[in-house]
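Field notebook, page 494. I keep forgetting to write these up properly, so this time I am using the form the group agreed on. The chain and the ligand, uridine-5'-diphosphate, are recorded exactly as supplied. Prediction of the bound pose follows.
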Amino acid sequence: MGRWRKKPQMVLCAALGRGHMIPMMGLARSLASTGEISVTVVFQNAGARNSIQEATFFSGLDVELAVLDAANLCEDPPWLTGGSVSARMHKDRSRRSPKAAAGSMDPESALRELLADLLASPSPPVCLVADFSLPWTAAPARDLDLARYVLYTDPANFMAVAYFCKKLVEMAILPAKDPREKKIAVPGVPDLSQHDISQYIWDSRDQYHPRVELWHRKTVESDGVLLNTFYELESSAVDALREEILPGTSLFTVGPLIVTGFSGSESDSRCAVYGAEKNACMEWLDSKPESSVLYVSFGSWEVLVDDQITELAQALESSGCFFLWVVRLAPGSSIGSLLPQGFESRVIAPGRGLIVTTWAPQQEILKHQATGGFVTHCGWNSVLECVCLAGVPMVCWPLISDQPTTCRFVVDGLRIGVEIHEDASGFVDRGEIENAVKMVMVEGAEMRRIAGEYKRLAAIAASEEGSSSISLREFMDKALKGRSYVPCNSGNST
Ligand code: UDP
């Protein structure tokens, strides 16, 4: 049986992948920080759980971590014996079923069992909040009569497009005659071209379409959707979703959900730097003038092809800017062989550029006063972090998924970014990159002013009386309503 917890409990189910996990950890922290909710975060495997530095993220908060991957429940991770954190759910051996210990359970069954166990505990949860890419969380919640909310980790702009696409296909607007013509109108969203909407969203023949269609269907079938955004940033899209696109759905804008100090993997939490000592990023930034450094990163997992890395290196060199570049390499590639001849002595050695080859402390970099611009793939966490932590303009180089739509929003909606255009083969040449970098770093004063204004609005939204705090409160009120929580003092309290 689970422990007695003094406050109403919410169970948060995190998806794999840093881009999904980071906002879920942010939500756990936001909820627990109210002092009114105890949180249990459920991970799908031990690797995901082990990447969480809970002593940093959740220090002093009523947050517990649990793992669904049944086989992993048999092993206590090393820090559980270190005494630095409070009791963990999977320390409780009664929670393991024989089937679970054999690792043969599918995630849906494992979650059903975990929730049933928690519901029978002295502090039953009031609701489940699941990542939107985990549709299989719906059945266990429904079967156990537990309210289920969804955390949508993409922007509201993308959500509006995703739910409006069916209409665009019915109206024969998609597929478009000219995929590059920006005249597709979606309520609340800047005009789009077909190129700005990933094919799997609208084309039922695309192999990923059924899967993503299911995610979206299960999202609106939930009791409500939490959006990792703040109202002032995406008010048009949020209003359109509420009034026109999904009028029956409760939407809560509770972002930005940002946690700092996330590591790249459970085994590698350091930041390896090419041509310098490890962990040198911040020292290197300290040595640079204000707003002079271009930060370049394509998120947590996307890898540019080798030729594109070489082209980007040439563009960064000829741009004349200081740059801090996170390079993720294809297996078998080495950074030394991809950089142009003499790059090391011309660019790295004199301190013009720094290359990080594993995982960079992105939020810290964005917060640093030397950072003046960001070349980004437009992953939503990266865009939010840029707006909320740095308030600097972006060079938008979207690769897949929600990123092209987010790029349109950053460039045409927020007006704080310059878009990179690829050629017909999908390659981006150095001149294109160099021009975009110069527009941001040299001619970007107006974009910088607007980005700074959004940074200010983000801080207000997150403040006690700000829109995101109010929205979080509304979500909590809805989740707690009807689920009167009567703590029964089992004598087993923490
Ligand atoms: N990130 C980081 N260091 C890195 C690469 C990524 O801290 O070297 C973090 C980044 O701050 C962001 C997340 O990983 O929070 C990436 O999420 P995003 O949605 O931007 O892109 P994805 O990786 O999902 O494509």
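OBSERVATIONS:
- The pocket of uridine-5'-diphosphate is lined by residues 18-19, 22, 262, 297, 299-302, 326, 359-360, 362-363, 379-382, 385 (CB under 6 Å).
- The first strand starts at residue 9 and ends at 13.
FOLLOW-UP: compare against the apo run.
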